[in-house]
Amino acid sequence: MIFISDIHGCIDSLHAALAFKDKLNAKHIMLLGDVLNHGPRNPVPAGYNPAAVATELNKHADSIIAVRGNCDSEVDQMLCQFPMMADYNWLIVNGRRLCLTHGHLFSPDNRPPLAAGDGLVFGHTHLPVAAIEDDVLLFNPGSVTIPKGGNVASFGYFDGQRFSVRELATGQEMIAIDWF
After folding, report:
1. Taking a C-beta distance cutoff of 8 angstroms, is the pair 154, 165 a contact?
2. pLDDT (tens digit, 9 = 90+) per residue, 87-107?
3. Beta bridge partners of 155
4. Taking each helix axis from N to C terminus, what angle separates 50-58 and 11-23, rounded to the nearest 10 degrees?
5. Residues 26-45: pLDDT tens digits?
6. Which superfamily, per CATH, for 2-178?
């Protein structure tokens, strides 16, 4: 599966990320929020076209699991043919729970109830993270559109055992961690 966070309406970034879905043979797309709008604190990104982003994502609706970001609204949901308004979503993978969230409500500093071996997958900060802390996986794929902290645009990939953050331009692994 691939993890895409903080598209912020940029069709070019989405196309680049979706190309890696095919190259990596990923069956599912995990959207971690801030899908269509850039938000009032961010600059309008190059390639800003929220309607085109919705149209492109709708082609993959049957493989998307999405959560709502702080820039997402009910109006965005009207354009998208997949549910995207949940604040969080749970996945069970190899008998362990993954909490998918944007990161503005639940975060490493404000975690939902997680057992040892579970994971928290989030976006929002636009900063890549792949770590185990207190026996819990913390994973943030960074941002495909507005990277921060001197990082390049990035997305996440999970091959069934290893979580990796990869450069959007090349697919090269930036950081990675095995999930127990």
Report:
1. yes
2. 999 999 989 999 999 999 999
3. 166
4. 20
5. 999 999 999 999 888 878 88
6. Metallo-dependent phosphatases (3.60.21.10)
